[in-house]
Design brief:
The protein has 244 residues and is mainly α. The model has no long low-confidence stretch (mean pLDDT 91).
Length: 244
């Protein structure tokens, strides 16, 4: 359920947009003005009161909850210390990555050698970091923004460059679901900039397809990695022959 403080923020925003004062609300709900102020400050709103506020604002309760959920502040990036904590424990990092990919608790423990107790322990660490909330029946509520990302030069990116990249490149890339291409050309600065734009577009396309695939069951999806790299470069053997 959406947190009460965020519901109150949403209610106040709607009241302000409608030009309604606490006195207007008090008259509409049959309460005193001080009572309305207390309700919207101490957070002691019953479902009945929430229903009354919803009616007053011309919303259904479902719409009020949904709007509050969407407007809640979302985590966009971890601190360097938090990323270092994830990297220091491979099981914690695994649970974090699975959580960010919208896996359920059952999905994680059925796919990997983690006990339910271990998984929950790591999920509680993620909760303290603000990545997710652990709800009743061990449901996971993700709290990150859509544009959540790892620090540009942080521990997570370094981990995947140092450990993930060599593992990724071990493949011959000749399997039916694998492909790799390598190309080289001589480009002007303008052409180089255009190529960078196209790379960003492809990266965004992967993110879009990832979001479109979220509703599909886990059994129909596979972890997919796309490596994009560009640099001004020529083979080392050629560089050795260059005139100084």
């Amino acid at each position: 359920m959406t947190q009460i403080p965020q519901l109150i923020v949403t209610i106040k925003q709607h009241l302000k947009s409608a030009g309604m004062t606490y006195r207007d609300v008090a008259q509409a709900l049959g309460l005193s003005e001080p009572s309305v102020k207390r309700l919207l400050s101490n957070g002691r709103l019953t479902l009945e009161r929430l229903a009354q506020f919803s009616d007053l604002l011309g919303l259904t309760m479902a719409e009020l909850f949904q709007e509050a959920e969407l407007s809640a502040p979302r985590l966009q990036m971890l601190t360097r210390e938090q990323e270092a904590q994830l990297v220091s424990n491979e099981k914690l990092l695994l649970v974090a990555v699975c959580t960010l990919n919208h896996w359920s608790t059952d999905d994680i423990i059925s796919a990997y050698h983690l006990s339910k107790a271990e998984c929950i322990k790591h999920l509680l660490v993620l909760e303290r970091m603000g990545i997710a909330n652990l709800k009743p029946e061990n449901r996971i509520r993700l709290l990150v923004a859509r544009d959540f990302d790892w620090l540009p030069d942080g521990p997570i990116r370094k981990f995947f460059l140092q450990q993930g990249l060599p593992d990724f490149m071990e493949s011959r890339f000749d399997a039916p679901n694998e492909s790799m291409d390598f190309a080289h050309g001589m480009l002007t600065k303008s052409a180089y900039a255009q190529l960078q734009v196209e790379m960003h577009r492809l990266h965004s396309k992967l993110a879009t397809l990832h979001n479109e695939s979220l509703i599909a069951p886990l059994s129909e999806k596979s972890g997919t990695a796309l490596l994009l790299a560009i640099r001004v470069w020529e083979p080392k053997a050629f560089r050795k022959l260059k005139r100084v």
